[in-house]
Structure formats: C-alpha cells, structure tokens
Amino acid sequence: MEKILSAAISPLELRSVEQGMPLVKEIAASGGAITERFDKVLKLMGLGLEVHEAIGNQETKTWRQLQERLEELPTPQRGSWQQLAALESTFTTELKDTILHHLAVAKNYEKTLKKKEAARLQQQSMAAVERCRLALLSLVEDDGLKDKTHSGLKACLARMKDLTDAMKKMEELNVAGDAEDRVSGCHKAWNAGRAAVQQFSEKQVRSAKAFIWLRQQNLAHCARLLDTAGILERLHILRTSPQRLEAIGLPYRCRYLLFMAAERENLSDDNFAPKLEEVPEEWEQRTSRHLNLKFFEKQGGQQKRQQMQWEWPLPRGLVAWQGNAEGSTSEAWQKRDEEHALSSQMVNQSNVVVDPFREGSQCLLCHQNAENGHHTSSTHCQQMKQWKIASDRLAMVCLDLDTLSQDEARRPGLASVWRGELWEALRASPAIPTNVLAVFWRRVVLPQLSLQNSKHDSESLLGLQALLKEALKVARILEEDATDKEVSAAITSAERFIDDTKYPGLDKSSIALAAAAIKDLRLATAKILHTRSAVLKNAVAILGQAQAKVKHHSLEPAFHATFHSWLKKHKLETCFKLLDQRGVIVSILKGDPVEANAAVGLPTRFAEKLWKAWCSDGDLRLLRPLCSPPDDWEAVFSRNVGLFYFCKRVVHGPAQWMYPPTLAEDKLPKVQGNLEDLTRGQPHSGSVPYVEIDLNGEPVCLLCKAHGLEHFASAGHARNVNLWSAIQDRLVAADRDLAVQSTSLTSHSTSSQLSELAKVWVGEIQRLTLEQNTGADLEGQVGRTFWHLLFDDWAAKASRPAQVQQELERALRIAGLAEPKWSSLQWKPRIPPQPDVDFPWPLPSILTLSASTPAEVFDHLNAEALKSEGIKVQADGSFWCAFCDKAVKPLANHLDRTSLEAIARLEATAIRLEAKQHLDSRDVAQTVVASLRAEGHELGREGMTISKRRFRCGLCNISGSWTRCLEHRSSRSHQDAYQRFQGSTSSIAAQAKLNNSSFIEVEQTAWKAAFDAMDKW
Ligand SMILES: [Zn+2]
Ligand SMILES: [Zn+2]
Ligand SMILES: [Zn+2]
Ligand SMILES: [Zn+2]
After folding, report:
1. Distance, CA 895 to ligand 3 centroid (Å)?
2. Cβ–Cβ < 8 Å for 499, 542
3. Residue-wise burial string across 856-868, b where 16 or more C-beta atoms lie within 10 A, e elsewhere
4. 550-579 residue pLDDT tens
5. Less crowded by CB within 10 Å, the N or C end of the chain?
C-alpha cells in the first residue's frame, strides 16, 4: 500500500510528495494504534483529494464519498479493525484504477506541455531563418554585392553564417509543413550570397585581365566607362547580351570594334576567369570550414605570419585595375600615352585661351614672331592647313557625340572614353605633325576637359557636348560658319535616303550615295555646331536617321552570313539559296513570321528542323548578325561618315559600304577518292556494279579493293555488302520522301527555285550515301564507291526534283542487283605474278666488294653490275634499290662493305647502317623469293595475290609489302580465315574450291615456268 500511495502521488508536484511520504511512513509505523491510524488515513485522503482536484481528476467524487464514510465512523472507538480493513481495501482498489488513470493524465499533460514548447521553438526558428534570409538578400543584387567594399563583403559573410546557423537549428527541430519551400528559398538566398562573394573575390583579377584585353584591342580608353556600367569584369557577355553596351555613352566605333574583337577571339568567361595555375606560388587556396567558401592564404616568408584574403591574388605581371572617383588605370594610361606622344613639344596647358596658337608675341605653331602679318605668311598658312584637319576631326567627334541619344546615361567614365576617342581621331592617319597636335591638344582640348573647368559636368552627355563644342569654338577661331542655305541643301540631299517610299532598301550603289550625302551633311553641320540654331537641330536629327538606315542595310548581309553558318551547323546549308529566294531570311531578320509554304518541296529532315527553328522562339529567331567581316575583308571606320565600311584585304582593294556577301557554295562538295585509282575490270552486265571482271576472267571487288573469287566468300566482303545495303535503305527512304514532297510542289515554282530544290535533294542524297553510321567502314570506301558508281555522272547536272527522283530510282534499281551468277562465268587458271615486276628478283652478285674497295669505284659501276645488287638506274639517272624499295644516294653509302664484322656488331655509323640494311633486305628478298618458288602457287588458292610489290589477301581484306606475304599466310588470323573458307558450304566458296581443284596442276606449272624463265637470264 505504501508503494501504491507513493506511486499515486509521484507524478505530482514535489510539495505533495513531501507531505505524503511522511504520512505514509507514519501509517505504516502506527501499527495497532487505531485512533492514530484513522487520523493518518484521513489526512492522507484529504491530501489525495486535494491532489486529485489539482490535476482536474473526474474521480474526485468517489474519493469524497470515501472520505465522508471515514469521517462518519464513530470516534474515538470508530468501529472495529474489520471496518477499517474493509475501508482500506475499498480504498486500495479504488485507488488502483485512479492511479492508472492518474498516470495517464499526468503523462498526457507533460506531452502537451512539451508539444506546446516545441511548437513555440519551431515558430521561433522559422522566423529566425526568414529574418536571416531577408537580411542576406538585402545585401546582394543582380551583379553581386550592393556594397562592393570589404565591409560589404564582411556583412554578407556574417549574414551567410547567420543563415547557415539558423537553418541548422531549424533542421534539428525537425520543422515540418512548408519546410521544403522554405529550405529551397534559403538555399537560393545562400547561393546568391555565395555568388556575390565569388564575384567580389574574382573582380580584381577579372578587371585586370579585361583591361589588358582592351589595351590589346586599342580600346583601353573604354575601360572606365565599362567598369562603371558593370561590364568590365564580365566582358564575355559582349557575345551573349550585346544590348548591355547600348545607351551607356560608348562611341559607336568602340562598340562595333568590341563586338568584332569578341567574335574574332570567341570571347568566353574563360578569357577572364581567375585560374588556380596563375596564382602566385606564395598563395594557397583554402576552403573555409564554416561556409565552405574558397579563400587565399599567403605563406608568410620570414615573419611566418600568415595573411588571409577572400580575393584571388593577382597573377604575376598583372597590374591591378583601379577605378575610383580620383581616376582610373585607363585614364592614367591615356594620360601617359598623350604625354609620351607630345613629350618633345614644350607647350604649356593654358586655361585662358584667346588665340590658341599665340602666346605673347610668339606663334606656337611656327615658333616665330607673330607680328607683322605673320598670319598671312606661307609658313603659317602651311601650319594652319594641319590645324584645320585637327579642328575638323574634333568637329566629327562632336557630331558623333551629338547623335548619341539623349538618354545615354550620365556615368563616370564618359569624359574619359570620349577623351580617348578624340585622341584616337586626332592621331589617326594621315598624321597631324606633333607640334600642331601639341598646341591643339594642350591649348584647345585639355583646358575644356580638365577638372578645374567646372562650368559643365563632363560626365554627363549634355555637359560633355557643351565642353567639346566650347573647344571647337576655340579651334575654329578663324574659320567662317557655313550658311543656313548650305546646310539646308545638304539636309535635303541626305533626307531623301531616309524616305522609305523613295528608298525602301539600299543596295550596293544607293548605299554609297547615301554615305556620300551623310558625309556632306556632317561636314556642313560641323561648321555650325557651336550655334544653337533650329537648322543644327534638324541636321543632327536627319543625320541620326540616315546613319541608322545605312547601318541597317550595310549590315543586312551580315545576317545572311550568320544564317548560313547556322544552316551549316545543322547540315542544311544546301537550302540557303532557296530560302533566300523564298524571302525567309528577310522575314526572320525583320522578325516577321515565315510564310506557310516556305519549306515546301524540301526533304522532311529540312522542313522539320527549319519549322522548329523559325517559329517564334526558335533558334533562328535568336540569331544576331555577325560583326566581323569574312577573313579576307576588314572593317574600316570612316570618321567623316561616322560608320564602318568594308574593304578587301589586298592592296588597293575595293571599298564598299555593304557587309561582304556570303559565298554560298554553289557546287556539291567533291567526293574523295577516285575509282580510277583502283585496279579495275569490266562491268558485268546484269550484276551489281561493284563487281567487275578483269581480263583473265577473275572478279574484282570495288568495295573492298580485292581480287579473286575467294574474296567474295570472305566475312570482310559480307560486312561491306551490308554497308552497301544500309546505304540503299537510307536512299529508299529518301526516295519515298522525295516522291511525297514533290507532289506538294505547285506549278508556280520558278525554274530557279526548282533547280535549287534539285540541288538540295542531290546534296541530301550525297549526305545519306557518305554518312558513316558504323565504325566498320573506317575509310568510307563503300559510300564513296556507291557515289562514284551511281551518282557521279548526273548529280551536278540535275535541275529539277523530278529528274533527281528519276535518276535516284534508276540508281537504286542498279544498286539492288545481285552479284554475278558465279557458276556461269568462264573461269581460267590464275596467272602467276611476274618476277622482277611484281616483286624484285635477286640475281647472284657479280661484284666482289670488300672493305678496301675505294669509294670512287662505286660511281663507275655499270648498269648490269648494279642490277646484280638490286639497284636500277631510273629514267632520270637516279638510283633505286629494289630490295630496300627506296631511292639510293650516294651509291657508296648503300654498297659500302667496310668492316663487315663491325657492321655485324652494329657498332656502325649511319652510313654503315644503310649498307647493313641493304644487305639485310637482299637476304630477305632472297629468302622470300626462294619460298615463293617452292610454295607460291598455293597462295592464290588461299585468296592471296602478289602484285606491284604488294600482297593482298582477299580472305582477310588486308594488304602489305610483298616480303610479308608468307608471314601473313602463316599468321593465326589468316589460318582461321582460310579454315572458314574451306569449311564454307556457300555456293561462292564451292565454286572457288571447284576452280582451285580443276586448275591446280596448270597453275603449278605456270608458276614454275615463270620462275624458271628468270634463271635463264
Ligand atoms: Zn605661325
Ligand atoms: Zn569485297
Ligand atoms: Zn638496297
Ligand atoms: Zn589472309
């Protein structure tokens, strides 16, 4: 009972336990003292009741009744022990149930409490994660850190760490529900943070590399502007997002040059990304434990102090890029260049300039006294001509600046890029003499561009325009303005080219006229640039439109070039001309939908690919015109027109405004290899054309370049025949396609379109014929043979699809014929090879050469003597060794017998080695010829032939030097092939074996006769 009671109260608060335990102990200790025992039990029940109420137990009623019954008992003699015992037993059973219930309730209560607490913690952790996520996101933007400084980096890293910690905590708490979304959101934020950190750490190296690249393109002056536009550190986007260069205030010339250079060098991220192998060796890359990010540590040399940084250290030899409010690396570079070019000229920059080329009484241009009519002197006029050129060039740059759209941004670096551009213009050829340039630059241009001049903001387009016009005013001090009438006339003549009703498009000649009109208008406008007249405004507007139109039309063929290279990539280039004729290229260039029947009549493969590519979001819609002209052309910028023209890279090559035309290959590519190189026979009527019969009645296989009936029973031949039928299958499919597609051709097709279509089909047939879809035909011999035998003579001439179809079907009929009926052929014995022609014939040497033979002797040997050494005098007087199969020069080296022992021991010089090789070759020839004499007649029956110093094995489809024929014959692979041939029950094998057995004696005799005949010589 003590136990039960303890258990009953145990889950409850400490207080109850403290009060209950002594009571229980007292009850146990009180023994027979009945009154006391009653009191104790009563008290205990009171406590129990209290406890039950405290935990909200429903059973309180029973307890209260028990308590009441206990109280009802008379005191002090409250009944007998029996009553007490009965009461106690009721109490106990009642209590047991209660305790169980009690325990359950207590457990539940605890669970609820825990759940509530857990939910609270989860809520808290989710909120923390969200807070960290937002905090991190607030620090980054599209192109990296918002605050691109070290403190910005630090803050970002700290937020990333917070986010990681918060997420770890959330993970530990097992947060369910929308956790997945939340986690992926956090990962996104974390990755954005990591990308920003990476960008920050790579920026230094990337910018430094980009600056070097720009310098190589002569575009260093653009670096600052590109940097502030956020492009410098990722120049490779020039290729993918050219629009990023628009409206940032970059001169058109620079923009175009940048695109060209990017195209030419196939610019990619790889050009600028930092690379581990470039990191100076004292630096090591490490990974941070907390964030799993890379950082760098410098091994500290003598001090053993380690330096740590997130940025990639600059590779050796690279200068850090700097671009800040005080200036940039590119500006410093520009100034150095100017100083260097003008260093010989002592002209001071002056901010107050009345007469730019006069200081005091000195003329700065002529270094003479400027008084007494100096201005009209011939010396001075000479200098003024140069001055005028400089002033015109400045005017052209001012005009370029004027035609920029007014929303081009206000950006640090604008002044720097145009200063560089102006410098480039002034330095262009023909060169202006340095003395004039120095005065012009230091006393006209720089005073306006220097920082002290705060009248206008040189980093805004309007400010820069005003400043340079100011300079122009000073430069043109003695020139007269153009009259409004002159300018208006120029406007009228340029204006008509903008008129789309007069000039809907511009062709090669009209574009030249338009460019000339633009040039005139620019030169006229330059003379009134400093005014603010309405005529000027009008002129600038017309110029802008005319330039845009010329630019558009001159670059139209560039789109053709891109289009063509896309087709080529997909092996569709044969339809280029047809698509051009059907207006597809223009539609795509304009962004218009392509006409529904544009692909009619083309092979299905073409139509499917093209439809997919020219639908609204297809590949062709993403094409951009190429900027760089074809290899043998160059693009040249005309300052006077403000646009590029194209020029062939030959001396005095023609110049044109149109982008050079794409040369679409008009002819089918020539198929390699020529059947004439093969040993040929005569076609056999009614047979598949790759079998021909030679003069001796033996079959020739053009597929395998093999000879003899045994070959036709070989596995190699069977493989090539399979390739032949695979080509047939592909062409049968093409023929079916051609039949279907030609029915959809309407009678409206022009003959030129039909001829283009025929070319497309022939091209497709060629592709299908030569296509190698297995590795079995390594050299493509089967496809080439197919082409030459069946298509070569008509392919180039076909001018209508119907004709192609007719010829294709004829070719397929022939290709499908069977090999000849072998048993019906007229078989003859084999003709043995001709000694001394098909292989060299070793004669007994009639020379007695020894180590002491003087070298001169060799030069006086006669033809017969040489022949006995295997050496033949050729028509041109040179020597050829039949044993070594090579030209010999000089003879002494080849026939040297000096110290044969030394040669044998190979302690030889190069000369002796040659002599040794000759002797070896002669030995080999003698051995092989001896064997051939004995067993050579058997070779033919095993499918082998010897001809022109080579052997061929028709069973193995193999060939090699004649000296190796016996080696091949005894090789394992040949033995196997011969076994298979012997065991074969095919009709070809049977016929071949029949031939062999019937001619065995005749052949042996002929063979022996051929050898014996040689002995008589
Ligand atoms: Zn002068
Ligand atoms: Zn063959
Ligand atoms: Zn030789
Ligand atoms: Zn063989």
Report:
1. 8
2. no
3. eebeebeeeebbe
4. 988 888 888 888 888 899 889 898 899 899
5. C
Residue 81 confidence class, pLDDT cut points 50, 70, 90: low
Q: How does residue 34 score in pLDDT terms, banded at 50, 70 and 90?
A: low
Distance from residue 934's CA to the centre of ligand 3 (Å): 24
936 CA → ligand 2 middle, Å: 23
167 in Cβ contact with 186 (< 8 Å): yes
Taking the centre of ligand 1 as the mean of its atom positions, its distance from the CA of residue 424, in whole angstroms, is 25
What's the rounded Cα separation, in Å, for the pair 598 and 165? 61
Q: 364 CA distance to ligand 1 centroid (A)?
A: 7
Please report, as a single letter, which amino acid is at residue 151.
S
DSSP calls for 127-179: HHHHHHHHHHHTTEETTEESS-SHHHHHHHHHHHHHHHHHHHHHHHTT--STH
Taking the centre of ligand 2 as the mean of its atom positions, its distance from the CA of residue 702, in whole angstroms, is: 7
What gap in Å lies between CA 125 and CA 173, rounded to an integer?
A: 8
Residue 541 corresponds to which amino acid?
A: A
- As a whole number of angstroms, the distance between CA 655 and CA 632 comes to 13
d(CA 991, CA 1010): 26
pTM score above 0.70: no
Give the Å distance between the CA of 978 and the centre of ligand 2: 16
Measured distance CA(78)–CA(84) in Å, rounded: 9
Distance (angstroms) between ligand 3 centre and the Cα of 958 equals 26
pLDDT over 90 at 812, yes or no: yes
Confidence of residue 516 (pLDDT cuts 50, 70, 90): very high
Residue 839 Cα to ligand 2 middle (Å): 25
Residues 412 and 227: their CA atoms lie apart, in Å, by 9
Tokens 């970002």 locate to 156
| 936 C-alpha to ligand 1 centroid (Å) | 102
Q: Which ligand is nearest to the CA of 944?
A: 4
Report phi then psi at 707, rounded to 5. -130, 145
Q: At residue 633, what are phi and psi to the nearest 5 degrees?
A: -120, 160
Q: Cα–Cα distance between 180 and 575 in angstroms, integer?
A: 51
Which long-range CB contacts under 8 A does 330-338 form with residues at least 24 apart? 330/211, 330/214, 330/220, 330/221, 330/222, 330/223, 330/224, 330/416, 330/420, 331/224, 331/416, 333/215, 333/220, 334/220, 334/221, 334/416, 334/419, 334/420, 334/423, 337/423, 338/423, 338/441
Distance CA 693, CA 599 (A): 46
Could you tell me the pLDDT band of residue 898, with boundaries at 50, 70 and 90? low
Distances (CA, A) of 260 to 218, 257, 600, 627, 665: 13, 5, 36, 5, 25
Beta carbons within 8 Å of 968's beta carbon, 6+ residues apart: 944, 951, 953, 956, 958, 960, 974
CB-proximal residues (5 Å) to ion ligand 4? 953, 955-956, 974
Helical pair 508-526 and 378-403, crossing angle rounded to 10 deg: 110
Ligand 2 centre from 955 Cα, in Å? 9
Q: How long is the chain?
A: 1017
Q: Yes or no: say if 159 and 189 are a contact pair by the CB < 8 Å rule.
A: no
And the tokens for 188?
């996104």
Query: Taking Cα atoms as reference points, which of 572, 576, 582 lies closest to residue 605?
Result: 572
Proximal ligand: closest to the CA of 369:
1
Place of tokens 């929303």: 407
CA of 531 to the centre of ligand 1 (A): 28
The residues near 768 (Cβ < 8 Å, ≥ 6 apart) are 727, 730, 731, 734
Q: Are 737 and 603 in contact (CB under 8 A)?
A: yes
**CA distance between the termini of the chain:** 137
- Distance between CA 439 and CA 462 in Å, rounded? 26
Q: What is the mean predicted confidence (pLDDT) over 504-513?
A: 87
CA of 272 to the centre of ligand 3 (A): 59
